[in-house]
Amino acid sequence: MCAGQTGFFFEPSQDTSVLNEPARRIPVVENTDVIVCGAGPAGIAAAIAAGRLGVKVRLLEVHGCLGGVWTAGLLSWILDAGNKNGVIREVINRLQQRDAIVTYPEGAKNAVGYRPEMMKWVLEEMVHESGVAVQLFTRVCAAHVDESKRVRAVITESKSGRQAWKAKVFIDATGDGDLAAFAGCRFDYGEENGGPAQPMSMLAMLVGLDPEAVKLFVRGLAEPAGERNPKRRLLEEIRRGGHDPSYHAPTLFYLGHGLFCLMANHEYGVSAFDAAQITAATFRSRKEVHRIVEALRSLGDPWRNIHIVATNEQIGVREGRRPYGLYRVTVEDLKNGTRHEDAVCTVTFPIDIHSTDPKRSKGIASPGFRSQPYDIPYRALVAADVGGLLFAGRCISGDFVAHSSYRVTGNAVAMGEAAGVAAALAASHNSDPRDVPWSDIASELQRLRSQVSL
Q1: CA 198 → CA 152, 321, 347, 364, distances in Å?
Q2: Less crowded by CB within 10 Å, the N or C end of the chain?
Q3: Whether pTM exceeds 0.90
Q4: 140's torsion region: left (phi>0), alpha (psi -120 to 50) or beta?
Q5: What are the pLDDT digits (tens) for 253-275?
């Protein structure tokens, strides 16, 4: 046996299928007010909001950049942001000032396109200005919950080894609800009948296309030009090039300055909690994206010079755990347009269920009704099973259908902002997030949002 990097030996075991790791002392590297796990759109907003209220904030992120699906995921499109102010408006404003935004008056309501590399810079700028301490390349791998069922620390793994981080309040913005699961929270995953989750997708940044020449295939450019279904037209073009894509509503966006984003891939039945499955899906999807581009290029003009300049570092995961909160957003809320006194935001994005079964459909599954604008209540962000824990982003408390609507990033930012304010107030008063009056949270949210320059 060999000593590991940390200088201990694994104990021998009669069961050759396992290794017994001895107990070890984990250094507590920090004791702070608020810890945010995950620096995607929700986590960024939570950290910024809490930092601006003057508490000490630590932001932990597994990737090498801030932004999550916005940057490592190359999403390039912010949805359901049109009716929201605060951090999301500030992000858009700063991108606009750097000529990194494209908006369309028709065909893509409440949607904003952006260039991912500029998004990294903007988010780093905002986080640093808010006084937030950040550690990248760091994965949360465990949680310490005390006898009163309150989260007291998270454990991480990184190049620095295994580390412990203590705080008064924690925010799970991991997307997949990792911290909630480590803390022992109950959760749902996938369809309500125990079926699979929505498929994952690989995105690609493309160059070599003339926007005018391909506009009838491009979401946001096609609609003003009289083409109402650019996705169908693009699907037909990919098939004409000899490839039938795994997603039958392929989407091409224009991000300005000759840069396009392509989403034309589905990876079905892949578990968000199985690294081997995600690895295989990543390889399959990248291979398919290249085949799609080759198929288009083979058609000649206007596709003759199309090339991929990047695929996403992290395959796009639409759905992870949905941990239990004090309130569960359900399909009935969408049908009824439910409103709440403790609303952190109003969702206007429709139900968007990417088919879980390619034998039935490779496109979007219809729920059979049209959702109405509805509220996300603060209670859906508060953990039901443990204290000291909030959720933000796509891992709030909700059912399968509702999740397909509220999961988009315009809503994630608003949820994160509210969670950050609540966490800061709870930490300042040494209380639990569930005990912070909504009137106090709403007052601070309004004050922070009013400070954003338009």
Answers
A1: 33, 12, 20, 10
A2: C
A3: yes
A4: beta
A5: 999 999 999 999 999 999 999 99
